[in-house]
From TrEMBL:
It comes from Xylanibacter ruminicola (Prevotella ruminicola). This is Glycine--tRNA ligase. ATP binds at residues 249-251, 259-264, 331-332, 375-378. It is found in: Cytoplasm. It catalyses: tRNA(Gly) + glycine + ATP = glycyl-tRNA(Gly) + AMP + diphosphate.
Length: 513
């Protein structure tokens, strides 16, 4: 099945099983805005809990805050967002659709990469065990030709993005003969910049109102509070401040379901270090964050680092952690060395000293910052994409199952009476009452036991407990495992110890030690 069709099934599954709904759907929706349903909010909260605990519990020198969405408008002037928070956009005159010029070019580079990889895979099948990939890459004329085109495009793109040079970006699109995926034409407008911040007014009357912005990132709330946290918490460099919160961007090219939205949630941590040590900490945080992702068990081959072609105005090093979605490798987390730009700017624009006094060196300085920033919604989507499976069973049937990491699953355990009589529902309720203090449980008595299993598979419930007539005499239940569909008889008294360790966030955190 084509990956595009798989993605459509995932989007449909999210709505059908209460994970994600189009926002304001009864009013025909609101573009690129989504609501999380009853199962989606549980999964989302578990993702946030995994990140928060990994940051604040496993690192003695990282604490959290929760800053306001509205902040003084001068903050965004100081951070550069008022003047520099722009996307290069281009329109196709025939389809009337708008695109990010940089994304069009990056997709073209990816096509060259895919073409090279296809040639390599064909050669691998042809030569078998004797295949030498490095030698083939050096000697194949077809591969060398494609690679030269790819490298030349990459170099032109990297140079054009430094400005960015908008005319150069358009020329690349024309030279590469990039077509609009809808109209199939190359009838492009000029590239122009578009600021992404939402603006509103604060005040009781129009005359006395002040223009404020919905924050486009959560980081600035950390920067303007860093000295408050440092002093009240008696923190010493190096230390970090973590925050989870909503951010807002007026994305013109919002697409791919919840991957790019106008209202989204971020998990950011700013790590404050001594000047000159930032590029020592940068690779350490790269390794730490990749380990966090891979602890979910999705396979190292589905992750990669992608260094930025164009560094943001505040950075001296930047990389993305990309995950293999059905629509290609896409960014889920950014790791940036932000230098001392933000703190210096806030000191300059506020007129107040926010330098850190280092008791070790007996000097005051502006700390440098390593940032890790992950989109909750993108993380949610990457997990759903990897977990979604349609399995062919031995009896010829197909089951749809979400093989979610047990610690992240919305429901950890479903308890089901075999029939709705003979005291079985009462016994099942009794078991629920024992387990519900430890993890999220669900009671289900409607339909056949097979249909109930399928319902729980579809929302990713790792364990199902079936209460039958023998339970009333032997004190045992049937425990079913989602991934293997295997079943075993266990004592009711053992259920909590069997399930809890595997479904707790602690089970993931232990992998990070």
């Amino acid at each position: 099945m084509a990956q595009e069709d798989v993605f459509k099934k995932i989007v449909s599954h999210c709505k059908e099983y209460g994970f994600v709904f189009p926002s304001s759907e009864i009013y025909d929706g609101l573009g690129a805005v989504y609501d999380y349903g009853q199962n989606g909010v549980e999964l989302k909260n578990n993702i946030k809990q995994y990140w928060w605990k990994a940051m604040t519990m496993l690192h003695e020198n990282i604490v959290g805050i929760d800053s306001a969405i509205f902040m003084h408008p001068t903050i965004w002037k100081a951070s550069g967002h008022v003047d520099a928070f722009n996307d290069p956009l281009i329109d196709n005159r025939d389809s009337k659709k708008r695109y990010r010029a940089d994304v069009l070019i990056e997709d073209q580079i990816a096509k060259y990469d895919e073409k090279i990889q296809k040639e390599v895979e064909k050669a691998r099948k042809r030569f078998g065990d004797s295949f030498d990939e490095a030698k083939y890459m050096e000697t194949s004329e077809r591969v060398k030709e494609t690679k030269e085109k790819r490298d030349n495009l990459h170099a032109r793109y990297a140079e054009a993005m430094q400005g960015p040079d908008l005319e150069a970006l358009k020329q690349i699109i024309l030279d590469e003969e990039i077509v609009d995926p809808i109209s199939g034409t190359k009838n492009w407008t000029d590239v122009r910049q578009f600021n992404l911040m939402f603006a509103t007014e604060m005040g009781a009357s129009a005359d006395a109102s002040m223009k404020v912005y919905l924050r486009p990132e959560t980081a600035q709330g950390i920067f303007v509070n860093y000295l408050n946290v440092q002093k009240t918490g008696r923190m010493k460099i190096p230390f970090g401040i973590a925050q989870i919160g909503k951010a807002f961007r007026n994305e013109i090219v919002a697409r791919q379901f919840i991957f790019r939205m106008r209202e989204f949630e971020q998990m950011e941590m700013q790590f404050f270090v001594a000047p000159g040590t930032e590029l020592e900490w940068f690779p350490k945080w790269k390794e730490t964050r990749m380990k966090w992702h891979q602890a979910l068990g999705f396979g190292a081959e589905n992750y990669r680092f992608h260094d930025h072609e164009k560094l943001a105005h505040y950075a001296n090093a930047a990389t993305d952690i990309e995950f293999k979605m059905p629509f290609g490798f896409k960014e889920v987390e950014g790791i940036h060395s932000r230098t001392n730009f933000d703190l210096s700017q806030h000191e300059k624009f506020s007129g107040k000293s926010i330098k850190y006094f280092d008791p070790q060196t007996n000097e005051s300085y502006t700390p440098y910052v390593i940032e890790t920033s992950i989109g909750v919604d993108r993380m949610f989507l990457s997990i759903m994409c990897h977990a979604f499976e349609e399995e062919k069973l031995e009896n010829g049937e197909t089951r749809t199952v979400l093989k979610l990491p047990a610690a992240l699953a919305p429901v950890k355990c479903a308890v089901m009476p075999l029939v709705k009589k003979d005291g079985l529902p009462e016994k099942a309720r009794e078991i629920i009452d024992q387990l519900k203090f430890h993890f999220n449980c669900q009671y289900d008595e409607k339909d056949s036991i097979g249909k109930r299993y399928r319902r729980q598979d579809a929302i990713g419930t790792p364990y199902c407990v079936t209460v039958d007539h023998d339970t009333l005499t032997d004190g045992k239940v049937t425990l079913r495992f989602r991934d293997t569909m295997e079943q075993e008889r266990v004592n009711i008294s053992d259920l909590n110890s069997i399930i809890e360790d595997k479904v707790s966030i602690a089970s993931l955190l232990k992998k990070l030690q």
